[in-house]
Structures
1.
Amino acid sequence: MEQIDSDSSAQERPLAIICGGGTLPFAVADAVRRRGRRVVLFPLHRLADAGAVARFPHHWLYLGQYGRFRRLARAEGCRDIVLIGNAVRPALRHLRLDWITVLLLPKIVRLFRGGDDHLLTGLARIFEAHQFRVVAAHELAPDILVRAGPLGIHRPSSRNLADIEYGLALIAAIGRFDVGQAVVIGGKRVLAIEAADGTDRMLKHVAALQREGRISLAPGESVLIKAAKPGQDHRFDLPSIGPETVDAAAQAGLAGIAVVAGQTVIAEPERVAARADGAGLFVFGVESPNSGGQT
């Protein structure tokens, strides 16, 4: 059997980036190229931005084409893999399976019987069984992580800070069920918990509750809190925010967004700060609850 590369030799090879939607895959690719390493993108049909993909060497994939990926990644000399970008978990019947994936189907079916972290960690084990190594995007591009403190000109109030602490405790409590990286809290009242709908749809639901008068809090008195689940594999699916998150939070009448510094990925930080400042919202990186820092 072929031997797995040492860390040093693997880092000299091209990096394979399996791309979902959004701008983060390209931010990572640009950061890695600036450090002198070649990247090869493997964008997913119907998810990745074709215009942005065209700037890089790439091979398009359909979900379920693991055999195609394995063959092309090996031909490119890739051993390290980053999985990043927005994606919706597909139904098994919607996968476009090649022969190698069909052989792996019993394992894949078992992975679908659980939460997202269960699924992604299991997929990483499949890659690693075939001599690939799944690495965290932020290890290669640390600038994509949110830093501690305010991103723009606005800061959370003492009441907001209390809600942030409450929200972090809630995410930690429900995380063992492999659900939810985001909650909306107002006055220590739970207004929404993210599930399969995702953050943007959750915020649209909060906005609808505001319009219907089912939330009695005044605009600007609730907070979106995002954090990784306890025990989550940080190589993929870290919480993320971008300009669209700010827009959705503003439409939902929130005071701001709080995320865990060093454990949250941010797309287009300058645009995030500008939109938050324009909407009167704060975007704030809090210290990790496990770091001993204060919110």
2.
Amino acid sequence: MPANTTHPDYDANLPAWLRARDVLTGEDSVKSAGEKYLPRLDDQTDDEYLNYRARASFFNATARTAEGYVGLLFRRPPFIKLPDPSSALGKALAAFAHDADMLGAPLTSYAKAIVSEVLTVGRAGSLVDWEGESERRVYVSRYAAENILNWRMERVRGRNLLTLVVLYEPNGCVAETGADEFEVRTHEQIRVLKLVRESEAQPKYVVEIWQRGQAKVKRGKAQWNLVDVRVPLRLGKPLPLIPFVFHGPRHSLPDVDKLPLGDVITVNLDHYRLDADYKHGMHSAGPRFLDQW
């Protein structure tokens, strides 16, 4: 199977995730989806449908609800207790709490972003990694539900452990700047996290990097090529587990959970269609009523 093979639960839940993204983005995203959220009426021409859609109003109650929940959860600043700052561990965790993802986000801001993701689509993921070239410290990367393509849980030495996680990174590899210094080109890639077991030895954590090739295979699909294999070490030894954490509304298991705002999203889209029908009726019946009056 190719590296971008998706889990059956991913395929089953992807439409709901994308619908939630569209609704939370707002009216422009919902209307640009066209008949996906607002079906065309019988015998409507293209121009009539465009006018029908333009008259409708989408009030984003879902986004307001999500913002309200996040505000309630973080109405008080989270309390973070770190080890003694004078110790090596305290210094390392202080740097991590100040900049958790090496993009400038403190740990509290990162936690808020994770909560927002869980409220939005009911799922997110965090990969703990190590930067060993310049800063030499730990950091964490956030992955959206749509970018966690595949996963596998197995029983290893009496414990249920992740043995496979496949992560899609649309901007994973930054290409060198071309002739235009303002142009930044990126290459999409897939990061495969594996727990490799060799006979009875302790399993080790292996990272594979796959990039999309230029050649096309059958049915016009692109080919993914393995470009790098890494074995992260700690104290000179491979890690015995995959440092990836799933985030959900009710648990931290790989199992996909129900969207917390799923019912609100359904009602929100129903109000959008109802508003379109109401205003279409007003638009159609208004001139006739005035003529009769």
3.
Amino acid sequence: MNKESILLVQESFRKVAPIADAAAKIFYTRLFTIAPPLRALFKGDLSEQGRMLMAALGMAVNGLSQPETIAKTVRDLGVRHRGYGVKEEHYKIVGEALIFTLETGLGSAFNDSLRQAWLEAYALLSGLMIEASKSEA
């Protein structure tokens, strides 16, 4: 990712952070709407799940400018998610739900440049997670 894309993602996430609980709710509602079978992968309280999602996303977004500092943590997430039953094909669906969430939460501020920057960020992060889930199998 180039510096401009990283800054776009980081600045937009700072706008989402204050509405993290609402954003997480939008995310899970969308995820289970487009892929109802994925609901079975989530055990326990979705509110807590949402907090963990937003915290992990915040960590990843903040580390984009120095990806080597977050690579191990992101890979560990991939291995952990494999243990929860997450499969490679699920990452595309999660990415769609994430983009929908950002578009909904940011409204008109979510333009084509920002969409592209988030798609790049998600490709980088999910790629690390997928790679780790395969190599640790």
4.
Amino acid sequence: MLSDKSAVLLITFNRPDTTKIVFEAIRAYRPEVLYVFSDGPRADRYEADSKLIEETRAICKAVDWDGKLVTRFMDENQGCGAGVSGAISWAFETEEKLIILEDDCVPSLSFFSFCNNLLEEHKCDSRVMHIAGTRWNEEFKLNAKNSYFYSKYAHIWGWATWKRAWNNYDFQMKDWPNFKNTGVLNKVLNNYFPLVKRWDFMFDNIYKQTKKHTWDYQWQFTMFKNNGLCITPMKNLVTNIGDVGVHFSETTSAHHRERNELDEKLVAPKYYHAEYDFDEYHGKTFFLNGRSKPRLIYDQLEGFFKRKIKS
């Protein structure tokens, strides 16, 4: 039985072509409330951005179903970091739960029912903090009878969460130095030092930035810090079509993965914990991709001796 439709937050900037495709997917869902955040033009590209932004906003205003449109259209550019995180916080001023899509993430129709059902089922379950639409490493086989599994990794190409979880978020990551000194990250990542070192580097880098250009690493830090679980679909439900933008690279062609549909009647996993084997595999193949075997061995030995010295 499908729960009440959760509100959707659509985050946009200057890509009318991709926004139109995502908006059509939202139109098929027909949310009762649609929040639209539109970032403002960059100072050094004001005229070009302004034209594209106006086209994008016009698309998002075309709500032709019985639903409420709430907009936050910025005059000045907020950037990928403060803009997106600020948009989520803005929508949570009113909502208790949200489905969140950026302007290049095209969901299948069952993505919405997947999020709705699980948002309702886990609304009071503080350990579950994130519902993802993407399923990476599909070559790693899990129980095919289940509709989803739990992971400690929270991917954000089409996702959902609750205000109670987002309240733990800190864009500035002020607690990172203290958390780093506790050594808890080692336990979260099963003492695999190359991966610990990688996340140390990424979190250090974000923490030290005066003007932060991203927001999602801070959210993953929030997940790690609070021992949060992410619900991940067994089949991929979202296709990223972002071939333009500041984060585009030739490697994004791999992001154009097939999206699937799931049955509305979801089958939960038997055990309520992260799939440790999957997370280990995903951590090594996704976040350490491209690192040579000698370097990984060196990092692992470095971690081994550091733990020996501490003990």
